[in-house]
Known about the structure:
Radius of gyration: 20 Å
Structural class: alpha+beta
Number of strands: 5
Amino acid sequence: xxxxxxxxxxxxxxxxxxxxxxxxxxxxxxxxxxxxxxxxxxxxxxxxxxxxxxxxxxxxxxxxxxxxxxxxxxxxxxxxxxxxxxxxxxxxxxxxxxxxxxx
Length: 103
């Protein structure tokens, strides 16, 4: 979906409560939920979850983002989704290709 969205969300206190609550039974890797994941779906739907390596994700919020009228990069890229490459970077890629293996 070629759209840029904006939204501000308040992480609910319930998220912190879930993250400081010990897992029962504890996970071999962590006794707590240590991850907060925020997702943006087509249409600007925002959802967030807390989870641990061993437990199910628990949804903690849903929100609706709005379309950013300036587009990507706050309007600095004429509607394109990337800034132009620096001359040195462009020259390197033209000579050596994109270094996918280094990622």
